[in-house]
Amino acid sequence: MKEFHHVLQNRLGLHAKPVSEFVQMVKSLDSAVTVSGGDKVASADKLLALVSLDVHKGDSITVTFENGVRDEEIEKIREFVERHL
Question: Does domain 2-84 have CATH number 3.30.1340.10?
Answer without folding.
Answer: yes
